[in-house]
């Protein structure tokens, strides 16, 4: 979107919220994925809880599928106050001046959801949200999507299979390094453009959890998918700090409670929705699904682990070490529980 068009949209949207402002608070919640995804469904859940509990005093308007803004534009729109709430993927925070969030992109750092949740809900997540405050943003919650899988129009069984492939990535330096470590050629692209880019061969492949792949119909334009679980995709629900602090305290408390419940709901459905999406991809028979065997996975890991070291200074060595320690603790508990 051109800057002029963007400014016009901002003015139009702020004018419309001024008309409504006299008697109600409007929260425009923009996101880029389909409504029937964990993020899309949780946004609707939040809307329903908020509107019920504030008896219509707060109206939440959810705009899915990049309907209002694409990835980078929605960040700008939040800072300008044209929308009030977003849930961008954790891979999209570096341009906001918060490279720490790229911890979540480090390949093979999280062996399971338990580790991810402890990292999100503990000191690491708190540190990241504190950083957002310095950027005029306020973090409300961390949401799941799931573990990412690789797809392309050729089989991706070994690291060598990536050589020279153009792979779409989100705007994360870690993801850029990850694809380069595999020998691929990473291309940053907005989520809304990926289907067409795959269809037209602008890029050869991509990575995403199955549910994003399926709901964007990428399986129709990708012949091969490798279940590699090589990385995690999650979200931070964020608001404009000035907007948030300007809300009446009782409304803020109601919104916080609704967000807590929407978050529990989101996390409770994310894994099952991804499992189901993978089954739907299989059933569509347009994409061959390959489960990466353990020996090969070890080789992918070996190729990708140097990326952790490369980003120690921009992400923070302490945050990386804390995540390793949490993963080890979760593993220890799992063994003890057997
Ligand atoms: C992507 O751009 O691939 C994802 O971040 C989209 C999303 O929000 O899940």
Automatic annotation (TrEMBL):
Position of the signal peptide: 1-21
PANTHER family assigned: C4-DICARBOXYLATE-BINDING PROTEIN DCTB, PTHR33376
One BP annotation, GO: transmembrane transport
CDD domains, per database record: PBP2_TRAP_SBP_like_1
Name of the molecule in the record: C4-dicarboxylate ABC transporter
Family, as annotated: Belongs to the bacterial solute-binding protein 7 family.
Originating organism: Sulfurimicrobium lacus
Coiled-coil ranges from the UniProt annotation: none
Key words, A-Z: Signal, Transport
Any one GO CC term of the record: outer membrane-bounded periplasmic space
